[in-house]
Amino acid sequence: MSDILLEARHLNKTYRQRTGTLGLQTNTIHALEDVSLQLKRGTTLAVVGESGSGKSTLARGLLRLLPLDSGEVIFDGQDFLALDKSALRAARRHMQMVFQDPFASLNPRMRVGEIIAEGLVIHRIGTPQAQTEQVIQMLKKVGLQAEDAQKYPHQFSGGQRQRIGIARALILQPKLLICDEPVSALDVSVQAQILLLLKQLQHEMGLSYLFITHDLRVVRHIADDVLVMQKGKVIEQGSVETIYNASQQKYTQQLLSAIPGHGLRAVGA
Ligand SMILES: Nc1ncnc2c1ncn2[C@@H]1O[C@H](COP(=O)(O)OP(=O)(O)OP(=O)(O)O)[C@@H](O)[C@H]1O
C-alpha cells in the first residue's frame, strides 16, 4: 500500500464568464492551472491562498463535485476520475467534507442525531439500533453528549455546530477529510479548540486531511505540509517548517506577514 492517499496530477479547470452590457463577450478564468499535489496517509496538507486563488475549485474538483478540464486524481490507488457511478459511490464513503459555515451546512429541521446518522442511513450500514449507538459514540468523540442527539442545530453555539459537522463527516470512518475553511467563521479561542479536536481525531482514527484556508496562522497548528496557491497556480509547496522559516516566494511572505507576531521579517527579502 502506497503511503500516498491522494494524488492530483496536472489539474486544469477554466470557467467561462459572460461579460459586457449584453453579456455577449466571454471571459476565461483559469481557476486551476496545472495543479499537482500529494497527500500522505495520516497527515495534513494545507492549501493556502487568498480569496479567488482556486482553493474551493480544487476541493470540489478533487471530489468530482465539479468537472475538471484535464488531469488525474488518484485516491487510495484508484483512478478516481475514471470510476463509474457505483464505484464512485463506494469511494465517496471514504472522502468526506467539513464546511466553513456550520449553520448553513446543517439542516435546521433535522435533529442532530438524524444529521449525524445520515451517512449510515444512505449507505444502509447497521440496524437502527446500531446506528443510534454509533451516533452517540461519535457525539462523545467530538466533545458533545448523548442527549444532544435530540436537539436541533439552532440550540448550539458556532463551535458546537462545527463539532456536529465533524461528527457527521466522520460517522462513516472516512480515510480523507476535506476541510474547507472549517474554523474561519469561529472566534479565535473556539478556533483553537476545534483545531485541537481535529488533531486528536486524526491521531485516533488515522485520518488524512486536506485543509483549505486563507489563514496561515491556522496552518501552523494543523499542517504537516503546505501548498500555496495564487491565481489558480501552485506557487510554492513544502513542509510547514520550510514554508514558515524559509519561504522563497514574496506572495507567501506577504501572507505570513499578516500574522501577528510573525512580523515583516522576510517581506521583500
Ligand atoms: N462557477 C463559477 N463561474 C465562474 N467563475 C468562477 C466560478 N467559481 C469560481 N470562479 C472563479 O474562479 C476563481 C477561483 O475561485 P475559487 O472559489 O475556487 O477560489 P477560492 O480560493 O476558493 O476563493 P474563496 O476563498 O473566496 O472561496 C475565481 O476567480 C472565481 O471568481
From TrEMBL:
SMART domains membership: AAA
Keyword terms of this UniProt record: ATP-binding, Cell membrane, Membrane, Nucleotide-binding, Transport
InterPro entries: AAA+_ATPase, ABC_transp_ATP-bind, ABC_transporter-like_ATP-bd, ABC_transporter-like_CS, P-loop_NTPase
GO terms of molecular function: ATP binding; ATP hydrolysis activity
The keyword ATP-binding is assigned to this record: yes
GO process annotations (BP): transmembrane transport
Pfam families found in the cross-reference section: ABC_tran
Highest taxon listed in the record's lineage: Bacteria
Domain ABC transporter: 6-256
Protein family per UniProt: Belongs to the ABC transporter superfamily.
Protein name: ATP-binding cassette domain-containing protein
Organism of derivation: Methylophilus medardicus
